[in-house]
């Protein structure tokens, strides 16, 4: 299936009333996930240490802290991206909340040893900070800068909701049907014929045009379709600035690689067996939130690392697309199906030339400093607000706990 990303496009320019509705929907989802964790683990929410996970009590408290830190406690919130992130903030709703939940200053490994608030206190903190956010949003002005941090808080909560879903998969935590209704295991798949889509040589404008500009039309070498993104739009700093990328002619699959295409490489010994699957008596199965079910061979291969994707490509005589190739095809190929798995690209996650960090500096900085690659698209667990072809997700190449797969290009 192809994603109608008009939902994500609209989410990037929501007004205050629309933002309030979206924030409430996001928080309802967060609280549903919290209850699922409590039902599975008990009120202490104990989990063993993992480099890939966060302690659940920290995770949910952090979501509330982040929202309050950048909205209610941010005295310069109406300055938008021009806010000084280091200005002195007033105290919040909880003693020591910065010492608990500030991901920039609380090393990952230490989060398991923190004297975190109990479940009841965490829920109360989530409620009180959220009510304050909604109150301020209702009374703040309507300019783009005024709403920047509310939009950031919304997308941040959406990201953590997806992280809680793949963390539940890792921990064998069952989730309510409402949260997994779009999973390839639970929904009917569209299995159109796989095609190689030929794309002509062109120049593509990669990234968002600067949302600080009121009117920006990019024309490159007189051969690119004009792209107009005006000042209403939110953009992540790593999506900026838009810049031309010259693309040679290429041919790209219309769909991500399915299990039916991926598993022969595993059976041939060319790729290691992916996480969460096994072969039982000649039948491939997948572990799905704590239960083993038969693998749907028509579904996109998922929980695939970039290393495994590269290995499959070597075996098949193919290659991964660059992020610019993927993005161009998503915009211009009518048969380009995406939205069930994040898709690895061959592109390193690096800053675009002219990059300027936004106030939440660490969002992109850690990814730039580490060895990470760009993933494009969205997964079935991604909120529709986040599913935009220009969004740059980024993970280390060995990560396979996320809902990631890939598609390939002809050599």
UniProtKB/TrEMBL annotation:
**Domain Sulfatase-modifying factor enzyme-like as annotated: residue spans:** 236-332, 339-407
A Pfam family annotated for this chain is: FGE-sulfatase
Q: Which residues form the signal peptide?
A: none
What start-end ranges are recorded for coiled-coil regions in this protein? Answer: none
Protein name, as recorded: Sulfatase-modifying factor enzyme-like domain-containing protein
